[in-house]
């Protein structure tokens, strides 16, 4: 990341910059998704205007909401396990911050270039289940506990198809490093035509669909919002949370949606890159330096596209029943993604 | 040994994480709440993952997080919360034969310590630890260690079939 500056930045300075960049990369998508999709798009889909008063076109509504949550009373139920109750939202948010650390935003604009990047991302994304279970249990509330258990069952069931869908991409790219997955897509070609690169959404379309369904479930967005089903469980594992602690859960939910959208665009849509053939680049070292500025813009655009699909499905579909949800994961998604892996490996060997 | 060869940062990191793991491991067996014990176990397993990272074994560390924290501990918590998830201290958590566990644990520790010291006693970690790539690991697994890998797969398959047989009512 540092080569775009003329001066040499010391190691602690680089680390500080990366931490700041990580905070921006988590909070900015979260805020954008909440305002653009949750406030405005949902309102338009329901034939209303949404927030209009705070700031021009209601654009400061987010500040008002955060201010509202910050000044609310911090309530912890008397019978709750206070220490674990307080820890739970932080575990969820930390898993999001750990997740963004491997997402590459440009040829040199990455936080860490982890060799087993995508494997790491799948591993730390499963940490949020722990936080949800802790929240559900420590609230001393039957609704919360039920919500936590539903969340755990759902997240375990849908993590499998997610991992299996990613394996197809890993086989095709021949690497687990996210940066090299981006390079492999943009320097590839489709039947000798390299004007588009080879974004894996074409060759791994089955994997893409399975992955999108799985992240919808991982994010507990409708139609997979059984864990926080408000008409049955008040609001599931978050029932007892108020004020700042609820805000952390809320940020965690939408920040994770943003980070998963970034991961999807890296895995299936070519990430930060443009097809390398356009400018005659051959590998990541020959990519021009200005891609460090254009790359993040491309990434954010693709993230908004994926987040739009996630929110569109969320606002327009009814909730799955618990048994339908489990059956769908185990009897449809997992066999389909296993078949995808088999087909991909056959093509990889034959071609 | 020369002072310059000492990896100061690594050693401090190891000490801090090891201390944390020991404290957490003791809390696993002394705490009076089942869920707390499981959560302390998460700390121990996370510490083990951190130690693997210090040893430049990224893949093993990530696998540790994915398998133990992401799957095994979640299932543990799921099971305890579904069946007996009381908040607050509980009595009678200790097995009646807990004293028997101490010599067994001591003997196990001695056996592992002897095995480690006798096979790696004089070796030192390289000053610049080389990150083992995933390709190297897979070349090893699907090359010289193919047979143990198959054997493990069969054991896992048997366990899965056993679980299905136990869970099915008809």
- What is the CATH superfamily classification of the largest domain in chain B? NADH-ubiquinone/plastoquinone oxidoreductase chain 6, subunit NuoJ
Which stretches of chain B are poorly predicted, pLDDT < 50 over at least 5 residues? none
Q: State the end-to-end distance of chain B.
A: 67 Å
Q: How many separate helices of chain A?
A: 13
Describe the overall structure.
The complex is a heterodimer of chains A (351) and B (170). Chain A is mostly helical and 351 residues long. Chain A contains 13 helices and no strands. Chain A has helices spanning 11-45, 61-70, 82-100, 117-125, 127-138, 142-173, 178-186, 200-203, 205-218, 230-233, 243-268, 291-316, 322-350. Chain B has 170 residues and is an all-alpha fold. Chain B has 2 domains: 7-87 and 124-132, Up-down Bundle (Four Helix Bundle (Hemerythrin (Met), subunit A)), CATH 1.20.120; 133-170. Chain B contains 6 helices and no strands. Chain B is globular, with a radius of gyration of 20 Å.
């Amino acid at each position: 990341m540092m080569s775009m500056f003329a001066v040499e930045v010391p190691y602690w300075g680089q680390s500080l910059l990366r931490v700041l960049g990580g905070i921006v990369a988590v909070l900015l998508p979260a805020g954008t998704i909440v305002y653009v999709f949750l406030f405005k798009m949902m309102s338009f889909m329901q034939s209303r205007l949404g927030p209009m008063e705070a700031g021009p076109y209601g654009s400061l509504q987010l500040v008002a909401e955060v201010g509202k949550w910050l000044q609310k009373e911090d309530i912890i139920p008397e019978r709750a396990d206070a220490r674990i109750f307080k820890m739970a939202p932080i575990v969820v948010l930390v898993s999001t911050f750990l997740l963004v650390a491997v997402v590459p935003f440009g040829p040199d604009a990455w936080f860490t270039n982890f060799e087993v990047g995508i494997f790491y991302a799948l591993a730390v994304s499963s940490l949020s289940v722990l936080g949800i279970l802790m929240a559900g249990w420590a609230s001393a509330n039957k609704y919360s506990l039920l919500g936590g258990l539903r969340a755990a069952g759902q997240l375990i069931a849908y993590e499998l198809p997610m991992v299996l869908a990613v394996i197809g991409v890993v086989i095709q790219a021949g690497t687990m490093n996210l940066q090299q997955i981006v390079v492999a897509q943009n320097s590839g070609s489709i039947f000798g035509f390299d004007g588009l690169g080879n974004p894996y959404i074409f060759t791994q379309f089955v994997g893409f669909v399975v992955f999108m369904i799985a992240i919808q479930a991982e994010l507990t967005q409708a139609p997979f919002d059984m864990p926080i089903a408000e008409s049955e469980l008040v609001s599931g594992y978050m029932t007892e949370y108020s004020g700042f602690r609820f805000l952390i859960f809320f940020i965690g939910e939408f920040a994770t949606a943003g980070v998963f959208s970034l991961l999807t665009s890296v895995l299936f849509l070519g990430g930060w890159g443009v097809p390398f053939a356009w400018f005659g680049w051959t590998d990541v070292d020959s990519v021009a330096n200005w891609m460090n500025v254009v790359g993040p813009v491309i990434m954010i655009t693709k993230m908004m596209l994926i987040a739009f699909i996630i929110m569109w499905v969320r606002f327009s579909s009814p909730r799955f029943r618990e048994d339908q949800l489990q059956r769908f994961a185990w009897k449809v998604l997992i066999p389909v993604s296993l078949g995808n892996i088999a087909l991909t490996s056959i093509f990889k060997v034959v071609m | 040994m020369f002072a310059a060869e000492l990896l100061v940062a690594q050693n401090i990191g190891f000490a801090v994480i090891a201390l944390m793991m020991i404290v957490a491991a003791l809390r696993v067996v002394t705490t009076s709440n089942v869920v707390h014990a499981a959560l302390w176990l998460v700390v121990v397993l996370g510490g083990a993952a951190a130690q693997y990272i210090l040893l430049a074994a990224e893949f093993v560390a990530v696998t540790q997080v994915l398998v133990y924290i992401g799957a095994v501990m979640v299932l543990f918590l799921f099971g305890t919360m579904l069946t007996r998830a009381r908040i607050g201290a509980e009595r009678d958590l200790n097995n009646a034969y807990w004293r028997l566990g101490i010599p067994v644990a001591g003997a196990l520790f001695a056996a592992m310590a002897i095995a480690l010291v006798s096979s790696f006693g004089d070796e030192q970690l390289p000053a610049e630890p080389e990150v083992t790539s995933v390709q190297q690991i897979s070349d090893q697994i699907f090359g010289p260690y193919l047979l143990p890998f198959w054997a493990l797969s069969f054991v896992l398959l048997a366990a899965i079939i056993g679980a299905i047989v136990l869970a099915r009512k008809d």
